[in-house]
Amino acid sequence: MTAATHPMSLSEPRVSIVILNWNSYEVTLDCLFSLRKMEYRNFEVVLVDNGSVDGSPEKLLEKAPEIRLVRNPTNLGFAAGSNVGIRDAVRRGTDYVLLLNNDTIVSPNFLTQLISVAESDEKIGAVSPKILFFDHPDRLNYAGGEHRRWRLFPKIFGLRELNDGTYDTTREVSFLTGCAFLIKAEVVRQIGVLEEIYFHFYEDIEWSLRVLKAGYKAMYAPSAVIWHKEHYVTDKNQGNGFIEFYLARANVIFARKHVPLKLWPFKMPFFAAWMVYRTLVFSFRWDWPKVLALYKGFWAGCFLKLPEEKTKV
Predict the structure, then answer these.
(1) Strands 140-142 and 155-156
(2) Rounded to the nearest 5°, which phi and psi values hold at 88?
(3) How far apart are alpha carbons 177 and 175 in whole angstroms?
(4) How far is CA 177 from CA 17, 173, 202, 204, 219, in A?
(5) 3-state secondary structure of 70
(6) What is the mean pLDDT of the segment spanning 281-305?
(7) Which of 28, 53, 242, 260 has the most other CB atoms within 10 Å of its CB?
(8) φ, ψ for residue 300 (rounded to 5)?
(9) Please, are residues 224 and 110 in contact by the beta-carbon 8 Å criterion?
(10) Is 306 exposed, middle or buried (CB count within 10 Å of its CB: 0-12, 13-18, 19+)?
(11) pLDDT-derived band of residue 236, with 50, 70 and 90 as boundaries?
(12) pLDDT tens-digit profile of 106-158?
């Protein structure tokens, strides 16, 4: 089956699906093949290759010639890498941008349902679907989220719970996941693209916050379903402290940018407790590179120069 077997409907809003690839041929190809089966037809795939060295962009273009391939010469990180595709799509006049992880599989009516929710209210600026674990498809990976600026991480509703219908109501949320983040192009023009200083982690938290601050609603759409092979690419880097470094770094950067000083007495004890806990866990395992990465991330977050304005389109 190819995209050409489904006639395009020009009455549907145009959606640009931005997918980041980094040395991940097989998992990205699975995602692209699942997109071909969608019933929604007025879409394009903007595949941004983030400096792969495994030949995957050439092989993906051969297997899926319908994609628009954009190449980054080096690995720019998730935020900056994705922004290349987001800017490309918005500048060419798309109606919606869908930021989609390459380690996902989508259901055939996934995009139809997302757009249906997004189009139901002009004040809806962004929507995320119900996400299930690929390896445990009866368990929820995301069923909406909530983030408060004094928290370390968003509260993910239904995380690892059975998909038993409890979270099948469309509702407003305060955190949308970058795993599958549909946003109106007009909103992107207003609030800007992802904040590139994060490199990895927290860019979706900040984007969600900016959507809400601009006066738009963020929605969870349970009728749209995808399956997530969580951390497929990130897990390749666990041995060198990649996750620990960027989580600590992003936490501090977000606090410096968005947490008022009056809330720091509430946030920082949680952050300190998290640092101590992670230190003890890795020390018990004699995993000193991760301990070092954790504190390097903390100091990097403290002393990085913050951007003065939003990342423009």
Answers:
(1) unpaired
(2) -60, -45
(3) 7
(4) 15, 11, 10, 6, 11
(5) strand
(6) 95
(7) 28
(8) -60, -40
(9) yes
(10) exposed
(11) low
(12) 999 999 999 999 999 999 999 999 999 999 999 999 999 999 877 888 999 99
